[in-house]
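I'll show one example:
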Amino acid sequence: MSETAPPHPTAPEPAPAASASRPAPVPPPPSGTEPREPDPLATRIRQIAEVVAPTTLATALLLYYGYVATRSRFEYFGVPLDMADLSNRTLILYGLEVVYVPAALAFLSVLAVVAVHAAVIWRLGAAPGSQVNLFLEALIGLVGLLLIGRALIGILVIDPDQEYPGTTAMALAAGPAAVAYAIWIFGKERERPLVPARLRRIALACVVGLAVAGLFWASTEFAWAAGTGRGQEDAEKIGERIEIVLDIKEPLVGLPSGVTQIPLPTVGKDPAFSYRYRGFRILLTSADRLFLISGTWKHGVDQTIVVPHDDTVRIQLIPAP
């Protein structure tokens, strides 16, 4: 019997080299879950708003400060600003005279707040969860609560004329902000916010609203006090201003102290100028009117004289000695 040889085993065919290095296909993400790139326009608008919004608020506060200070300055002499009818440009220029100091203080305050915030963030990162951090958070929150209490007392109890200008207003602006900041750093250190997102947005809107209201309120009180002080300085140095010699046709009634009336010789039946007045100083020139006070003007004693600034009067200017 003949034996049949076993079949010769065949070697497996090698896989193509290209298939060994080909990565496995990645299934496409389901619809609706694709990552969205941030809208460049929205990002740019947010970046601009972060700069423009604080700048706009600061500019509005400074312009408002200048307006209120100018109003207080001229009301010290018994001249309502509405009666003066100043142009917007003139009003802004008058306001700029008193706005430099509060502008410098405002920007220094912003730098101080930024420095304090940087120090707090550094402290929280240096020793997370320490007792010092907990004490710092509690201290900031306590200061905020005390400021809120002071603001309520100032609103409900204290007479505004019996406190330093801006005390209640600044307490109202800073108190809620300090409490909100303490809550924020407490949640940031523990990586879990204490307030839900919806309530957090409402609380943030209230804190911003109170801060803006308090800043404008404080700006009004500071500006009114600064304008009154500027009016007092003007009254003390009024004798150093240029003297105006006024010739008019009709006599003035109720001359302030320090002003003398000199009758002028008349020629013809209808003289143009019959009276001359010496001792006046120009307080304000607006449109077609002159606001005049004497060189010895005293608050509560003398008055401000208003005459037309047209061809019915004749003026001469004499420089101060």
